């Protein structure tokens, strides 16, 4: 029983609502008391003399431990010579869980899988790991001989529908490039897998030089991101690939890197349909949220005492995310909406590397449209919507996300990010709202400058928004059919003084990424990505922007409007707590946006945050306006209200937040099935399939028509 209790700390655990304890937090808590007491009779060694290949396996053996305990641990540190009293390991596991001989004989072995973190590696044996920790043995450093190798590649969306941004990570700022070539094909024919493999061997015709950026610990906002969880991110390389004039459905073959640093594996993506061009094929896109990552530690836990063939992924909060890549890699999509809560790094920088490595093969197949989630953005004093009450980002305040997943720039020579604090060697500058025209003519919100520093200048407007909520919600924000049991809105209690709490912060200099919201067109769909972590009322910059953006939509060219935001606007939920609760935030977003979405006939709203899947009817103020019977396939002859899709089931641990009886407006709901959404849209119909990443089956589907 004692062993189970100790090991359970290694897994992400629930605190309350959507707050989670990172498995490395326990190391953070004991760092002030850790001692270095190397014992000459205790030996720890590895068969890895150098790191030369991503995904390399290292056998670690140890012996000579006297008085072994159940809390002894093996930690992997990067860099090897870093101060273990000032930083946490990037991986660790209990020695007794890796080798049952540890308690009996003070010896054992384990297998670790290493990915490229651009620095040296070293293993340390920590006795009494979670109680009175002492480092009693260390391995020789494992030098990294490929620190500048391109890794963690992915594509990100551009405003211009005829270009895409390619991003990757390396350990150096020396020039790197994207090389690519085009294979023109019939527009409406999907790319067969075997043909892709053959054509990837072709000659690359063009080359684009990348811009290199980075961020420092000083750009972040708090603990542990700035301190014990900090890991140098290396350099983020970004190059824009243009395919203007290339037929939709054509194949772009590419690779990234350089002759000196090495090249990535061959990659490819499909040219998307042009906005409003009816001869082009339907646009295919995916959506998924709340992913997490599975730490790369491997160990032997299935049979005593040693089983070389019995290596298994260590169970952790993101273990279900290991099922997702193999399905995503098979999807022939034009883009994907990744709507918040990506890696769940929460201030422990190594997790961004694990996440990027785990999904590289999928995320290089189609561009991502990324939204901020609470575990990327929320931090006190940064201007978010939670009145300094949420610290879910672990001090990251959106900076790593903005830097690593670039959006909203149409100029490859600039390092312009929507709300980003990442920068090209700049220190700090005032950051402000920038409404600019991009090539496509779509107005987008972006941020200029480097590290964010601004005074909140809209005190009166924001106070008005907060006052509306404290007095029961703005016009149109209430619900007649929900209530707390079903996730509906009855108006916010006036006992919590939002205005007073926020006015105390209005003259404060703020730090962190600004709101990340933007829009773009692909094929027959106008996409809007919102930032649910920032104020969104019509008196806020984001609210004014989305109202204007919706008024500009040409429904002849893009008849469908799809909105993505991280937190739920309508989803079955039970957690109520002022400011932070699921039901409270549903009411906030309903009050801010529901009337606007109705007036502009938004078709689909996709969100996550609750780790489950649910689909509403065509919903307005808690009432179904369509006639589709519960549990049956939804087919409609026209628009009546938005359909709300909860897609927070990509891999992070299930939250089990549904009420015992689902409200009538929920037409499908699953709390313990992982998966993602697949869409296809032409000018007459929008189809959605909810795909299970447990077995590949279709969990749910709808067809909307116009």
UniProtKB/TrEMBL annotation:
InterPro entries listed in its UniProt record = Fn3_PAP, Metallo-depent_PP-like, PAPs_C, PAPs_N, Purple_acid_Pase-like_N
Cell membrane found in the keyword field? no
Q: What is its main location?
A: secreted
Q: Where is the composition biased (Gly residues)?
A: 473-490
Query: Which GO molecular function entries does the Swiss-Prot or TrEMBL record give?
Result: acid phosphatase activity; metal ion binding
User: For the Purple acid phosphatase Fn3-like domain, which residue ranges apply?
Assistant: 61-142
Q: Where is this region: Disordered?
A: 468-504
Q: Which residues form the Purple acid phosphatase N-terminal domain?
A: 150-269
Name any GO cellular component annotation: extracellular region
Q: Do you know which SUPFAM superfamilies this protein is assigned to?
A: Metallo-dependent phosphatases, Purple acid phosphatase, N-terminal domain
- Keyword set includes Secreted: yes
| Signal peptide (residue range) | 1-17
Pfam families noted in UniProt: fn3_PAP, Metallophos_C, Pur_ac_phosph_N
Q: What is this protein called?
A: Purple acid phosphatase
Q: State the organism of origin.
A: Chlamydomonas eustigma
């Amino acid at each position: 029983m004692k062993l189970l209790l100790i090991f359970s700390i290694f897994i992400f655990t629930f605190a309350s609502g959507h707050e989670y304890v990172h498995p490395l937090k326990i190391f953070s808590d004991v760092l002030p008391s850790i001692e270095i007491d190397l014992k000459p009779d205790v030996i720890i060694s590895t068969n890895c003399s150098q790191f030369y290949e991503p995904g390399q396996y290292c056998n670690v053996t140890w012996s000579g431990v006297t008085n072994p305990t159940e809390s002894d641990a093996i930690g992997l540190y990067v860099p090897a010579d870093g101060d273990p009293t000032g930083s946490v390991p990037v991986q660790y596991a209990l020695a007794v869980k890796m080798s049952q001989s540890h308690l009996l004989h003070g010896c054992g072995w384990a297998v670790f899988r290493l990915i490229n973190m651009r620095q040296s590696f070293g293993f340390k044996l920590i006795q009494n790991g979670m109680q009175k920790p002492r480092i009693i043995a260390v391995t020789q450093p494992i030098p990294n001989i490929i620190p500048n190798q391109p890794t963690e590649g992915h594509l990100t969306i551009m405003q211009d529908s005829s270009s895409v941004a390619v991003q990757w990570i390396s350990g150096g700022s020396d020039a790197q490039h994207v090389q690519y070539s085009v294979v023109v094909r019939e527009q409406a024919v999907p790319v067969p897998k075997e043909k892709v493999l053959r054509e990837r061997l072709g000659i690359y015709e063009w080359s684009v030089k990348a811009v290199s950026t980075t961020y420092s610990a000083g750009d972040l906002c708090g603990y542990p991101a700035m301190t014990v969880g900090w890991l140098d991110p290396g350099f983020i390389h970004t190059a824009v690939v243009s395919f203007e004039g290339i037929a939709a459905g054509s194949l772009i073959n590419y690779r990234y890197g350089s002759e000196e640093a090495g090249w990535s594996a061959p990659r490819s993506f499909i040219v998307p349909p042009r906005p409003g061009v009816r001869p082009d094929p339907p646009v295919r896109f995916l959506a998924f949220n709340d992913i997490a990552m599975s730490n790369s530690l491997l160990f032997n836990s299935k049979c005593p005492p040693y089983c070389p063939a019995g290596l298994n992924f260590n169970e952790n909060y993101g273990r279900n995310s290991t099922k997702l890549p193999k399905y995503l890699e098979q999807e022939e999509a034009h883009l994907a909406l990744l709507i918040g809560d990506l890696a769940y790094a929460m201030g422990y920088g190594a997790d961004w590397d694990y996440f990027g490595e785990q999904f590289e093969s999928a995320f290089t197949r189609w561009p991502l449209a990324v939204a901020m989630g609470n575990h990327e953005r929320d931090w006190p004093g940064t201007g978010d919507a939670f009145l300094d009450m949420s610290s879910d980002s672990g001090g990251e305040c959106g900076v790593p996300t903005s830097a690593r997943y670039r959006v909203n720039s149409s100029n490859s020579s600039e390092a312009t990010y929507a709300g980003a604090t990442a920068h090209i060697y700049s220190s700090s500058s005032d950051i402000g709202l920038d409404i600019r025209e991009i090539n496509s003519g779509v107005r987008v919100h972006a941020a200029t400058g480097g590290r964010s520093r601004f005074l909140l200048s809209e005190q009166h407007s924001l106070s008005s928004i907060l006052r509306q909520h404290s007095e029961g919600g703005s016009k149109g924000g209430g619900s007649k059919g929900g209530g707390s049991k079903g996730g509906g809105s009855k108006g916010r209690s006036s006992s919590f003084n939002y205005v007073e709490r926020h006015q105390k912060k209005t003259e404060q200099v703020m730090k962190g990424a600004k709101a990340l919201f933007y829009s773009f067109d692909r094929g027959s769909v106008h996409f809007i990505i919102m930032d649910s972590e920032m104020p969104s009322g019509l008196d806020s910059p984001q609210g004014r922007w989305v109202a204007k953006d919706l008024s500009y939509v040409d429904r002849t060219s893009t008849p469908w409007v799809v909105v993505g935001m991280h937190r739920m606007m309508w989803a079955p939920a039970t957690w109520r707590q002022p400011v932070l609760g699921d039901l409270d935030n549903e009411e906030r977003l309903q009050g801010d946006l529901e009337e606007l979405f109705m007036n502009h006939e938004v078709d689909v709203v996709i969100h996550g945050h609750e780790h489950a899947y649910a689909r509403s009817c065509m919903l307005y103020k808690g009432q179904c306006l369509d006639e589709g019977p519960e549990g049956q396939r939804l087919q409609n002859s026209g628009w009546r209200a938005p359909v709300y899709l909860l897609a927070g089931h990509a891999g992070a641990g299930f939250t089990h937040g549904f009420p015992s009886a689902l409200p009538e407006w929920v037409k499908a709901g699953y709390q313990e099935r992982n998966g993602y959404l697949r869409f296809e849209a032409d000018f007459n119909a929008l189809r959605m399939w909810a795909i299970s990443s447990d077995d590949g089956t279709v969990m749910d589907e709808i067809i909307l028509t116009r």
